[in-house]
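Section: protein folds

Sequence with per-residue tokens
===
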Amino acid sequence: MTIDYENQKPVISMRGIRKEFSGVWALSGITFDVYAGEVHCLVGENGAGKSTLMKILSGAYTPTEGTIEIDGASYQKLTPTLSKSLGINIVYQENDLVPSMDVVENIYVGNEIVKGPGLIDYKAMAQATRRQMDELGIQLDLHTKIEHMSVSDQQFVKILKALSVQPKVLIMDEPTSMFNVEDAAKVLELTRRITEKGIGIIYISHFLNEVVQIADRVTVIRDGAVIRTYKNPNRDLPVTTITQDMVGRPIDMFYQKEHCPIESVMLEVEDLQLTKDSPKVSFSVRKGEILGFSGMVGSGRTEIMRALVGADSRHGGHIRINGTEATINNPADSIRHGFAFITEDRQKLGLILNASVLENATILGLREKIKGFFVNIKRLPPLIEPLLKELRLKTPSIWTEAVYLSGGNQQKVVLAKWLFAEQDIYIFDEPTRGIDVNAKAEFYKQMTNLTKAGKCILMISSDMPELISMSDRVLVVRNGAIDCELSGSNINEQEIIKRALGVKKNGR
């Protein structure tokens, strides 16, 4: 859809938006707009202000200064109800679906179609959902409960739910962060189909290659201010130019992995079985080594790790640490044996959202640092602040609740918690998903520091550059089993994808 920026008026125009939190300016005079039928991508580091700006637009936050114009009417602030009634809806990065409800029930929860007093017309809702799916090229079983669906299918449900109220503007927050390459391509195609309906899209993503592919315009923000807006970026805009705008320095200054000596075997897993019918999994990791795990969505990578640390039950197998058999029946056992699990789902499994940064970061290592039954909370800040500073955590205060941090800064708190606990075996499950380039470099630096200290790392990643550059070896997981081990020059994108898909040497 061609946008006439000269003569067409934007659906939404945000002017001079400023937002203060406890004396800290999260936004410093942002101007941003979106047109009907446009994909306007918003990019920036974690903590740059993207989420804060969108929360103001969706009515979750009240701006300290500035105005919002929607269809010619001016507003000093919005509420969630008013924002939605004006045609603004958002597809959140984190899951907001009801696990025990099916697809149709989730799409229409709180907005049900009725056929009489107290009578919900499920058939009409299902028919409307099918029509919408046909128009957008989405295929789902409408009667499947969310808890039984893949993460990628859940994302499609969230998009259908947001579209069911016929918005004028749709905010898509990291829509492909949970997807493999194939499903991510489907989301990009879906995005274009949505704009053909005249809906404006604000698209937030750290995947810059897809940003330049899908965007009509790209706005880069840094430290709460607009740095630059690009039109038609897919024509001649290098991703490195956007990256430099985001972080304020050339891309070649980013952290590069350092190699360190790999010593004796620290962790040995033999015949690990999730159920009596599942494949037996065996592997070992040495001190100072990063062992990468690759595979398609649903291959069983995360399930293997959860069984390893006792988060899920397992049928059998042996776990040896430094040659000694370890009995691990639950997460507490794994922590006691020196495991750290930096989970993919930071909000549900990694953090206590309503607890402070300080409480989250010290919850595991506290007893080792301070002895005694009573803890003087004033003694905690000096213990954790140097680590938070090293991670470059952006927060108004260490007393700020974790729920108010950006996604990338939440992930840093999860990492800080495990670094503070000083474990020996670190499992990183999609460690940099949904975080910016600069934050990725900080994570990589910490991972290298761990290997230098003689720790070992098991890293699940769908980010090919990350997997290839950070791993000493890569295990490809397929159908719950280890398909192969790759090392040296064989750790390349073509070989990894080929083995993950089950393509043999003859191409079949």
The CA atoms of residues 286 and 299 lie 24 Å apart.
